[in-house]
Structure formats: C-alpha cells, structure tokens
Write the structure tokens for this entry.
Amino acid sequence: MLDLHPFTVQFAVALLSVSVLFDILAMTTDRPHLHLVGWWNLFLGFLASLFAVITGFYAKNNSSFTSDIFPVLTYHQWLGIVVAALFTILFVWRSSMQRQIYEKWKTAYTALSIISALVLLTTGLLGGQLVFQHGANVEKVKELRQQIEQLQNESPVDTSMTNILSE
C-alpha cells in the first residue's frame, strides 16, 4: 500500500505554520479578520496533523529500517505526537473563544502557538533527516543497500581480475 505520510504531513506543516503566522499578523496589524483565517488554517491543520500521526504510525509499522535510524525515528515520532497534542490544545482553546483570541489570553495563546510551531519545525527537520540522511522509506536506497550487503557477503574478488579491469 502507498505510504501516505509524506503527503499528509505536508498539509499539516503548511496549515499549522500559516495559522500561527496569520494570528501574529492579525495581532500586529489592524486586520482582525485575519484571526478567522488563522482559525480555519488551525482547524484544517489540526485535522491534517491527526492524519499525519496516523499515517506516520502506519509507515513506521509497515517499513523496514536499519538500526541507525531508530534514535532519530523515535524522536520524530514522539515530537509528532507532541505537535498534534499542542495544536489540538490550541484548536480546542481557540474554539472555546468563538474562533477569536481574547485579549486576556493573547500573550499565553501566542506563546503556546509559537512554541508549538518551533516543535513542529524540529519534527519536520528530523523527518527530513530520516529521508535525506538515512534514506528512510526511500525504495531506491533500500535496493542499493541490499545490493551493497550482497556484495559484501560474497567471497572476495579475485585480485588478478581487478588488476586486469583497472588496466
């Protein structure tokens, strides 16, 4: 089955980041309607983050990884859950304020949203590290690793043959 995590996670990252950005813009400019844009991005990003966590678990449980990936994968997994939890808290909190941010809660809400965005960024960086440094779930890398392992397990190459090939 197709691994949907790389696709779904992009929506969560984009929507949640833009949500924080629109809320900050609404607070720093005289455009309160941007709070509504921020809320809709938060709502859709919240849904996308749940789907990203589900597809992430599926990807982890249905893929083979080398042991060197597990520390990074573990941090990525737990930070992904933390991101989903933080933005769920923000979504519920924001929804209880009729999609606005009450004046008395602006500092606390903004601080939590910025912290959540930073955790989101860290999670994304770890995900990128898994793919681009470790080749996690990259089919061609898996095939190449298998070929390398097969070559390493075969008997040593006859040196007379390598001498002929090098000339």
